Amino acid sequence: MFGSKNKKREKIKLDKGSLKKALRVFKYLKPYKSAYFLGLVFLLLSSFASLVFPMFIGEMVDASKKSMDSINQMALLLFGLFSLQAIFSYFRIVLFVNVTEKFLAKLRQATYEHLIRLPMTFFNKRRVGELNSRIASDISLLQETFTTTSAEFLRQIIIIIGGTILLGFTSLKLAIFMLSIFPVIIIVAVIIGRKLRAYSKTVQEHIAGSNTIVEETLQGITNVKAFANEIFESLRYKNKTEEIVKYAIKGGKLRATFASFIILGIFGAIAAVIWYGARLIHQGDMSMGDLTSFLMLTIFIGASIGSIADLYAQIQKAIGATEKLMEILDETPEEYTEGEISHHIKGSVNFKDLSFHYPNRANVQVLSGINLTVNKGEQVALVGASGAGKSTITQLMMRFYQNYSGSLLIDQTEITALPLTDLRKQIAIVPQDILLFGGSIKENIAYGKPDSSAEEIQKAAEQANAHQFITEFPEAYDTLVGDRGIQLSGGQRQRIAIARAILKDPKILILDEATSALDSESESLVQEALEKLMKGRTSLVIAHRLATVRNADKIFVLEKGQIVESGNHEELSQLENGTYKKLSELQFQA
Question: How far apart are CA 520 and CA 499, in angstroms?
Fold first, then answer.
């Protein structure tokens, strides 16, 4: 729940490597490249129209010395220019919005599809809040960048370059004078802009951290309230938000300094240009109209320089966000296959000298030298204290992890050689903590077989002893279960999970403490449903309550990652000083 407080802050640089990685995102833009380039054409046209405007104004000023016809002619030209610019801007915005929304939808889909195909080792290293931020916040940042920021950035670049060229044509002397002033402003703006970007990134990181606290707390609200830790969580969130305030205020002061410098520099430069231009008019080296055009172009260029630092900072943040997305997309996914099952399994399982440790806990051996055989159709129980390795065995069977030593065979074939999708489609698990999705009961049962009919769903519910309570709801199978199934009792959720497993019709069934959290009445109904489900299937039952595994064909007792005893209930109960016998006596006496 608690992350590292003092992670070294990663600095995003706009270098060749980051640009190369970020540009990979454009492959999702490829289907819409024609519309995107057309949008760029309209962007160029609207930018050129902006540059022509000051020249027309200068011509109008000079026309005032000629005749009313000349003035009217220039006014009509200006109106035509404004009309064209309005049309260009409209199509630019419409095209960029259409392309960006479609492109980002593809990127969201690709990221999510890739994310859910990643192995469990990836999710063990990442927090849910961080991954959610990648899909939500980072892609939203790209949305703003591609819709507005990148277009504005290009527009300002065009105005700066095109405006500077036009300044030279208007008055070379005045242009040289102006260009001797503006580079100083640009250099200082770049220096301050870099510091601004660093503060902006720090603020974003702290905001992401605060969002993670909120998400974790709300997900675990039951625990928060049970431990009366509302004040603790409030203080944790308060500390994080106060860090945001601290860096945001520092950034605000720097932004204010930057804005004040730009204002002083721009207006100072304009005043200097007017002074020098007035001298040139006095000397007869330029007209009043030329000076008017020159000043307007100077203002346009100054405004572009003033805004380009912020635009650059936003683009840099977008590149950083893209890099994060690319890191996820660069992770190697599990191999999935579409369509029907091609490799059918029978259900025998064999562990041979298998040892395992979790990737993020290399020094902790969870399983050590496991030898375990389950024949097709057998019911096998795994018992032992918490942390003995029982659930790890089932996770290896689902191929959540593959970095084990020794062998794990299904039907005498190494599990890693089997098609992953085929394997998981033929194994069903009913855990202790049932997660139901926030849809209807029907949708949750159908999760075991998405293309199942209403009759198949009802039949599975009947076998799971769930049909009766489902039909007692006013909306029956269309009843919404609420977030994580909160609207249903534990026994009801368990029976829906069993119906889901029945619908899947697995060859291998894993029951992980499936009845441990239920009351006696619910346990009886669930146990009856489980017995129907286990019939004729290879079943692995993890249990603390030994009463539920008395009828198992084999019972394996685990201690500290090793099998210390094996046999059926009668055999293990006869072992003097045996672990199973001690556990059995303790539970049945109680």
Answer: 20
